[in-house]
Design goal:
Largest sheet: 2 strands, antiparallel
Order of helices and strands: HEE
Oligomer: single chain
Distance between the termini: 86 Å
Structural class: mainly alpha
Shape: rod-shaped
Number of strands: 2
Number of helices: 1
Length: about 70
């Protein structure tokens, strides 16, 4: 009877170790992907701001009818 309990405890222990290891790997990977996404968004945002600052760029604003038209520049 005790051999069955030891075997069950061993299987539960191994399953727990595997679960925690997979969970750790999953969290590390998702953290890395989130950092990469944030960096890509930052670079894209900086590029967009540089492009907007160039002469000849027209800002479009949505009108009441939903059509985009050139906005007023101050």
């Amino acid at each position: 009877m005790t051999a069955i309990f030891i075997r069950i405890a061993l299987y539960v222990g191994i399953a727990l170790i595997i679960y925690l290891g997979v969970r750790k790997i999953w969290r590390d990977w998702t953290g890395t992907f989130k950092q990469q996404d944030a960096e890509a968004n930052r670079i894209r945002r900086e590029r967009d701001l540089r492009e907007r600052a160039q002469p000849g760029v027209i800002d479009l604003k949505r009108d009441k009818d939903g059509t985009f038209r050139p906005g007023d520049k101050p």
